[in-house]
Hints:
349 residues, Hypothetical Protein Yjia, Chain: A,domain 2, 10 helices, 25% strand, CobW/HypB/UreG_nucleotide-bd, nucleotide binding, chaperone, Zinc-reg_GTPase_activator
Amino acid sequence: MALIPATILTGFLGSGKTTLLKRVLSEAHGQKIAVIENEFGEENIDNDILVADTNEQVIQMSNGCVCCTIREDLRSTLSDLAAKKRKGELDFERVVIETTGLADPGPVAQTFFMDDEIAEAYLLDSILTLVDAKHGEQQLDTRQEARRQVGFADQIFVSKTDLCEPAAVDALAHRIKHMNPRAPQRRVHFGEVPIAEVFDLKGFNLNAKLEIDPAFLEEGHGGHDHHDHDHHDHDHEHGEHCDHPHHHHHDDDVKSFVFRSDKAFHPARLEDFLGAIVQVYGPKMLRYKGVLFMKGSDRKVIFQGVHQLMGSDLGPKWAPGEKKGSKMVFIGIDLPRDVLLQGLEQCLV
């Protein structure tokens, strides 16, 4: 049976997760989606789109979707749903897991890799994070959970931008980009997001594309950007205007940095170094990903990880005439950037 794609929806309280979910659950998009609610908060999914008595753990929607409250842990809920689908008791094509506003999406994502039974039934597609433009700056300032949710994201939706000054929204976007340059940002109005931008984003696929916002890379110092930039004091170069004086004071603990080199890596040295780093800093490493140029291989090597779980795979061959090189992005909490960058330098041939 084909793997069931799963999407993790996260975001701080009031960021519009429920609005987005209602849209997904009530829209006539022709997809049968199972939604797993981590909690029914005060913003309950409206009963008018449910077609059953809410004592049941699994509720059918009028458009064929299914809504399920987590009573036990996520693992057993996922396992239950997959079993019901196999037996033909429930019909759904994909799963969306809404985490609580304070949750760290890391352990939820890890469930899909660490548990064999879950890994054989589901494929984790992406982590979506909603950020409320009106309260986002303050939440990022005061709550590490909000910063972690941004760091984990494959796609970021910024809601309630109509309630803010454009300059403030731009400043927030800029700040988020420094925390997570791999996740595209999209401004959304009342959860009106085309389904195509919510599903099948393939954020966890090992693929040879490493999307890092190009503007982020250009802010480095010329061509040699092994040491891309310190996020709390970089100048705005390249004609980038920034009229937010407080912009420079955000020294968020969730940061990203990029390593690039056109020299080849020594495979054994790199493996030992990354293994050691993950052992020591794994809990603080939110997402990391790279496309690597390895000595002795005519193919790209792709690696990525969440916390301590790291995987790698052989990618396509380097095309004739293609400039070989490695590009890696690390997103984490207070990661020792210099230790990582110097360590990676030492793994080069």
